[in-house]
Amino acid sequence: MCGDCKFEADLDLTKPTGKCNCTLCSKGRYWSTRCEPDQFNLISGDLAEYIHKNPEIRRYFCKKCGITLCAKFNFPHLGGEKVSPNLACLDVTPEDWAKMPVRYLDGLNDNWMNEPKETSYM
Q1: Spatial distance between the Cα atoms of 75 and 79, rounded to a whole number of angstroms
Q2: Could you tell me the residue range of the domain that residue 27 belongs to?
Q3: pTM of the full predicted structure?
Q4: What is the rounded average pLDDT of the residues 28-44?
Q5: Longest CA span, the chain
Q6: Is the pLDDT assigned to residue 1 strictly greater than 80?
Q7: Number of structural domains found in the chain
Q8: Of 116, 91, 90, whose CA–CA distance to 103 is shortest?
């Protein structure tokens, strides 16, 4: 991260986080979690919006360095509107990374309820 974009988020990192194998997430090394919109605050930076396949999922990235800071979506089955900060943007120790529970998602095959066969690269 170049440091141009900064955010605050009230996150519970004891809850499962997500790593998806879709092309966009795997190539960008996106590691997700969820929070309510009022628990996320962009402090500084100039963001651009990107909509990939599903217009319900809006991704926001730094215009300076290109890293994805977060995604926003609104799915009733997931509790409505949420913000999904990219955990890779956090300043976290290796010990803290190792403690975070991870759920692997098979977005590459639109098989969201099942883990992909191979997860070691994620």
Answers
A1: 7
A2: 6-104
A3: 0.88
A4: 95
A5: 39
A6: no
A7: 1
A8: 116
